[in-house]
Amino acid sequence: MSQEKRFLSCADIIEITGLSKSKTYSLIRELNEELEKKGFLTVRGKVISPYFYERFFGKDDKKMPVYKDKNGNWFVKLRYTDWTGKTKQTTKRGFNKQKDAKQYERDFLVKKQHDLTMTFKNFYEIYFNYISKRIKYNTLLIKKIIFESKILRYFGDKRMCDIKPSDIIAWQNIIMEEKSKNDDKHSQAYLKTIHNQLSAIFNFAVKFYDLNKNPARQAGNMGKEETKEMQFWTKEEYLKFSQAIMDKEDVYHAFQILYWCGLRLGELLALTKEDFDLENSTLRINKSYNELTNKILLLILKLKKVIAMFKCLSF
What we know:
Elements: E1 7-9, H1 10-17, H2 21-37, E2 46-48, H3 49-57, E3 63-68, E4 74-81, E5 87-95, H4 98-112, H5 120-131, H6 137-155, H7 165-177, H8 188-209, H9 215-219, H10 235-244, H11 249-261, H12 265-269, E6 276-277, E7 282-285, E8 287-290, E9 295-298, E10 308-311
Antiparallel strand pairs: 1-2, 3-4, 4-5, 6-7, 7-10, 8-9
Helix pairs in contact: 1-2, 5-6
């Protein structure tokens, strides 16, 4: 929808905002009343295009037409106001169809307005950008996997404001019947984890975007926590085990480091020779191996420490 059109009809505004028909007509009447008070002539059932964009998206958040480049692809230019109040312009290229460029334009402006008529998929992008700066990388990866495999394919195209507890219950029923690669249903603990991720994004919408209620909380949880008894070796048990593997030098030293220094497996697998200071008998822990990505990542410890140094025992 381009601002080159002088007047916008009810259908035009529904296409742009996703509002219901009745709300759209109420909006048109309200805007036309404002225009009449300012001395403008109005047309019943329609509103002047520039005034609609100024009032609905803000003075500087004006939509701009989509264009076709020399290669036959479509692109869109947009102006918007950033969080500092400055007017910015952005360009998005590479659309095969004009309607795809216009859809991107609508989605972009709705997200900038924090309007919950946006799709769940668009809101997920806002949520993911927020949490990516606040949680550990491993935790972020797990969240991403759960959303992409268990949540987005069901709720992605639904508008945030339209998702009801009944939708959540229907989704729960599907997930609870799913089977893993081993042809087993998901564990109770995993079901609870999946539901918690969905509930978290709605909590975010309630707290920061004025969503009225969390439909996932209203629907109730699925699954339950499984309390597992912690298994550990006593010192005597470990010494007995270590004696049995002394002939396997690499394995022996790996278990010695794990047991006496209290490392996690990922931290052990990420160690390099530079981490061992034999002169001062210290071991530096500043990274961890991530099996989800097969990458070694800098470890940011919870207690705001970037590097942990352990005094090594002479084993």
